[in-house]
Write a structure and sequence with these properties.
The protein has 508 residues and is mainly beta. Helix content is 8%, strand content 44%.
Length: 508
């Protein structure tokens, strides 16, 4: 009998002050503070519960999540951390599509429930692509031997390892990329003794070297052609530098950069004199939706006398003739250098109307530049605008669209200036404006406070990757060496052999 009484008392203590939802007896005109800041933002109707912590001392905490005409969710807790029931949240999202929703918070203080001013958010009608793929690694330069590619299910908190470099000698893995947000056509680089580019296309996985013999630098930053047959690469010589003092401790810069084009079906590569040579550096290619135009960043060629803080990239485009393997009509789209700025990471929206890019003071490795911000270029009107509704006082750098063009994710250091975290934002294609970005939800609201890895190159995809074992097997296979394309009209090989001017080269 005494044992049963003890268990009842223990259960009562565990339940604490808040056992069931209570009607508040007081109302206060004050906005409660929550962490993360899930307020005045827009959520997709397929997002995981945005659990949060109420930043206030109280004897008990309760929250009503509701919307007009929708059954509310009631949560009562003795702790300030609020966990939203996943099943109830999923049903709530389905009923609240297109509606404003409120978080109604009440605190038990001095024995009475006090209700605070409602916090408001919006539920969009459009889903976001269901999966986010990113590389996790330490934010500095010392511990690059621990990293991996991970996939997160956005509708819940499930995270899966796609590639962990501890499974192949702690070699570098980077630059995961997808064609049209689909894992059916994807690639990633391995750097080290098992080095190569892992390419998955039409159910087949291979390890290749896209750089033919005689090309100066290897394939670096990729862009899949919309048809999946071609991958445009930048071919970079990258150097890391260190500042003795100041806010920017590390500087990463190109010493050379060109573009090359790899055909996945034949293992052949070609380039063109418009985008290959020492006069200019070309990097970060990206295709338009129909694959006839390639956008990229371009700067004057580096010399030993070039100060790093004078290297500035402009936005260019060039036409692509897939049948004849020719480039034409090289055009400067936005001369950022004329304004003392530099462009990186151009990304064309799925409907081809907008191009989003990162703008910083110089260089193109904007993840180390606190002044980095996002901008959009309306490709129809030519209007350029800063995404002030998204940008912060810290780094806002790498970004990608989802397949609908209604959502994008940005890698931002706004929380602490050191670790890059994924923030998601809704984009209105009619107005060209975005909504306030929200931090990728985690089950523990304080997850990011004690997670010591940075989120690198977040990529949205519409279905999960299911070939982890096959990718690991491909890493251990011999590499397939690319050759110069038989149809190529220009080749660095020709110049290297000292045969004079290439008569087929496209003149600059």
């Amino acid at each position: 009998m005494k044992k049963n009484i003890f268990l009842l008392l223990l259960l009562s203590c565990l339940l604490g002050a808040c056992r069931r939802y209570s009607s508040p007896t007081q109302h206060i005109n004050k906005i409660p503070s929550i962490y993360p800041d899930y307020t005045e933002t827009t959520f997709p109707p397929n997002i995981a519960p945005p659990n949060f912590a109420i930043q206030a001392q109280a004897e008990g905490y309760q929250v009503e999540i509701g919307a007009k005409g929708v059954e509310s969710i009631y949560i009562c807790s003795d702790e300030s951390t609020i966990e939203i029931p996943p099943k109830e949240w999923t049903a709530f999202l389905s009923a609240a599509k297109g509606k404003r929703i409120f978080f109604r918070i009440s605190l038990l203080q001095a024995g009475e429930w006090v209700q605070y001013t409602d916090l408001w958010n919006q539920i969009a009608t459009e889903n976001i692509d269901g999966y986010l793929v990113y590389r996790l690694l330490y934010p500095g330069y010392e511990l690059w031997n621990e990293m991996g590619i991970y996939e997160r299910n956005l509708s819940n908190y499930e995270e899966r390892i796609i590639v962990d470099n501890r499974d192949f000698g702690k070699q570098c893995v980077n630059c995961h990329s997808f064609s049209k947000q689909s894992p059916e056509n994807m690639m990633l680089h391995i750097r080290g003794k098992d080095g190569g580019t892992i390419i998955r296309r039409n159910g087949k996985i291979e390890k290749v070297n896209p750089r033919p013999e005689g090309y100066k630098n290897g394939a670096t930053y990729p862009a899949w052609h919309p048809k999946g047959k071609w991958i445009a690469f930048s071919s970079n010589e990258i150097q890391q530098f260190f500042h003795a003092a100041g806010e920017k401790t590390i500087e990463v810069s190109d010493l050379a950069a060109d573009l090359l084009f790899y055909e996945t079906t034949t293992h052949q590569t070609f380039t063109d004199s418009l985008v290959y040579g020492t006069d200019y550096m070309e990097t970060f290619p990206i295709w338009d939706p129909d694959g006839t135009t390639l956008y990229f960043c371009r700067a004057k060629g580096y010399t030993e006398k070039t100060p790093l803080d004078s290297i500035r990239y402009d936005l260019y485009r060039v036409n692509f003739d897939a049948e004849n393997l020719r480039l034409s009509n090289l055009t400067c789209v936005y001369e950022a250098s004329a304004q003392g700025k530099s462009i990186s990471f151009p990304q064309v929206s799925p409907n081809g109307k907008y191009l989003m890019f990162t703008l910083s003071d110089y260089g193109n490795f904007s993840i180390w530049h606190p002044e980095s911000d996002l901008y959009t270029l309306n490709l129809e009107s030519g209007e350029i605008r800063a995404l002030e509704e998204v940008n912060s006082d810290h780094v806002d750098s790498y970004h990608t669209w989802d397949s609908s063009g209604h959502w994008f994710v940005v890698s931002s250091k706004r929380m602490d200036g050191l670790w890059a975290r994924p923030f998601i934002a809704y984009f209105d294609e009619r107005t060209g404006k975005a909504q306030k970005p929200f931090l990728l939800p985690q089950k523990d609201p304080y997850f990011y406070d004690h997670f010591n890895y940075t989120f690198n190159r977040p990529e949205l995809i519409h279905s999960p990757i299911r070939v982890e074992k096959e990718i690991l097997q491909a890493i251990r296979q011999p590499v397939i060496q690319a050759t110069q394309h038989k149809k190529a009209k220009f080749s660095p090989l020709y110049e290297k052999e000292g045969k004079g001017d290439n008569p087929y080269a496209v003149k600059k």
